[in-house]
Amino acid sequence: MKQRNKNLFKGRQFTAEIILWAVRWYLQFPITYRDLERMFSDRGVQVEHTTLFRWIQAYAPELDKRIRPHLRMTNGSWRVDETYIRAKGEWVYLYRAVDATGQTIDFLLSPKRDAAAARRFFRRALGQPHSVNPRTITVDKNAAYPIATRVMKRKGALWRFAKLRQVTFLNNIVEQDHRRIKRLARPGLGFKSFLTATQTIAGYEAMAMIRKEQVVGAPANDMVTQRNFIATLFGTAA
Q1: Phi then psi for 85, rounded to 5 degrees?
Q2: At residue 3, does pLDDT exceed 50?
Q3: H/E segment holding residue 112
């Protein structure tokens, strides 16, 4: 683990502490890379916005991966919905699921909005260690969801007694939760590629889970403890 952490920052001009500071702030607040460049300059650190972009692409998905084992268990009442994200000038679909208390279950960016995409998302969500096989899945009127759940029940991937509820107003929890992610994405005026969007959103979601008190050891309103926790995840001194 120590060797892997060392290699993760090997060859970087800046220290792990500075890099992780940039990652935490960019993924928490609705700012641009140029905003962050100016914030660094104010602290006497000269770093180009293009370098900041490369840091986010490298470390945002890594943060998401490393934070997963520390997530609190979610419950069996899923609220599933998809929202639109612009990538390379086109709209793509961000599938997201939260439980009845608003805790994040999982997310998936997809170029399509169909039954195959819904199945991929459900399979991914069911595979998370902090999720359980749901007793209810609340969705909107998208016809792809009944098709996807029937197939998954037939294959034994989804509990056969799980109830699918297509009641739009019951999904207010997840629809409100979309706003947090879209607010962070808005200053950038869209992503340059599907891969860029995927990697950045993974970081948005990871920091959002911290803000929702979902991460054991990282209190939502204690920035110092969050900093130390993330430093520990990456095997560095805070």
Answers
A1: -135, 135
A2: no
A3: none
Residue at token pair 């993974």? 202
Each residue of 32-60: pLDDT tens digit? Answer: 999 999 999 999 999 999 999 999 999 99
Give one DSSP letter per residue of 69-101, joined into a string: GGBPPP-SEEEEEEEEEEETTEEEEEEEEEETT
pTM above 0.90, yes or no: yes
Give residue 168's pLDDT.
77
Residue 187's SS3 state is helix
What average pLDDT does the segment 102-131 reach?
96
* Contact criterion met (CB below 8 Å) for 118 and 109: no
Residue type, position 9, single letter: F
Dihedrals phi, psi of 160, to nearest 5 degrees: -70, -15
* CATH homologous superfamily, domain 77-180: Ribonuclease H-like superfamily/Ribonuclease H (3.30.420.10)
* Interatomic CA distance for residues 56 and 159, integer angstroms: 37
CB atoms within 10 A of CB 64: 20
Residue count of the chain, please give it: 238
Counts of helices then strands in the chain (DSSP H, E): 9, 5
Tokens 């009127």, residue located:
141
Is the CA virtual torsion 1, 203, 164, 99 positive or negative?
Answer: positive
Residues 122, 149 contacting (CB under 8 angstroms) = yes
> What are the Cα distances from residue 78, in Å, to 162, 173, 176?
10, 10, 15
Domain boundaries, the chain: 2-70+192-233, 77-180
